[in-house]
Design brief:
CATH superfamily of the largest domain: Collagenase (Catalytic Domain)
Organism: Octopus bimaculoides
Structural class: mainly alpha
CATH architecture of the largest domain: 3-Layer(aba) Sandwich
Number of helices: 19
Order of helices and strands: HHHHEHHEHHHHHHHEHHEEHHHEEH
Helix content: 40-55%
Keywords: Hydrolase, Metal-binding, Metalloprotease, Protease, Zinc
GO molecular function, one term: metal ion binding
Cofactor: Zn(2+)
Radius of gyration: 24 Å
Distance between the termini: 38 Å
Number of strands: 7
Number of domains: 3
GO cellular component, one term: plasma membrane
Shape: globular
CATH topology of the largest domain: Collagenase (Catalytic Domain)
Oligomer: single chain
Amino acid sequence: MPSADYFTSKEHEDKLNAYKKFAENVAITLGATSSEAEKQIDEAIKLEIQIANITEPSEGRRDYETMYKKFTIEELTNKLPEFDWLKYLTETFSAANITLTTEQPVVVYALDFLTNLVQILKVTPKKTLANYLVWRIIMNRVNNLPKKYRDMKKDYHERIFGQQSETPRWRECATFVADNLGNAIGRLFIANYFDEEAKKSAKEMIQNIREAFNELLHEVEWMDSSTIEVAQEKANAIVERIGYPPYILNDTVLTNMYYHVDYQSDFYFENVLTTIKWNAMINLKQLGQPVDNEEWLTPPAVVNAFYSSTKNEILFPAGILQPPFYSKGYPKFMNYGGIGMVIGHEITHGFDDKGRQYDKDGNLKQWWDDVVIERFKNQTQCMIEQYGNYLVPEANMNVRITSTFHSSMPPFIN
């Protein structure tokens, strides 16, 4: 389901029924009787509705300073004794041969949610919990199952989102390879399609746009001079990553990234499970290791750009430094209107409602005073109301300014 309110709002009752039917059809195809599927899926979805009811709306989940809570496992256990956190985490990390103690620090971003969740788990039958977990795993991997399962998902999506064209199988396979073997694909991509001149041009544009941004800060009426000064320091400290990480040109490094991947040409689903296990192992083994600031957050062939609050860095993969966003054959004004627009957009993420909570070094720290924050919130609320009044005549609906607003919000306006 697209969001928690689809489980809880009467407005979406027909979509919830479509979701139930999807789950029942999958269960029946896997061998359950019609009556048993209906009964067990109904209980699992009742649990999912309970979870949806305690889920913080997406807007609230962007207040990282409020949400961030750090405990030891012992402290978390004292707060939420109904759940055996040490056993759960120990079992999880044992796959990576990592031993945990009660002194291990853990960061919790949803303490209220966990508090409510453990109460739900206490009174929910184990069979319902098992059915719910199995269903969530199956739903997550439907695209990797045979066509009859994918057709069920397609029918469900048509009920939820309207008529949709089916993604060609070749594209799904190409996407899977690109998502999971991104650096290997990236090595081939940059060898065949990336012009090194793009890196030099992008670096020059970033510097010019950064300077223009710093000048515009002086026109922001709701910021005081001291905040503007610190904002400029943060803008100047933004690290740019352009094109690709140098380490993927090293054959040894690239080979070591995939040494444990053993794909079999006749076992597609097993290959998917191998990839999931491999990715999980990489993440688990990072516990206790120093942060690698040179590691890229995305592979080179991706057609997108990114800003990281915790690293205060902007990242422009080789995939987006291509037409129509950029070409060395374009006049400068076209490149500034293409990739230049993207550069400016990513820089502003360091100062939007999420980025403002992190300082120039990527630490979660309030560097705006309360007065400036209040002015910022008033300014953004004004924009929400302005765009929320726009009517889409074809749908007879006003524009909904919620989850998409933060990604498109230009925060530095007067």
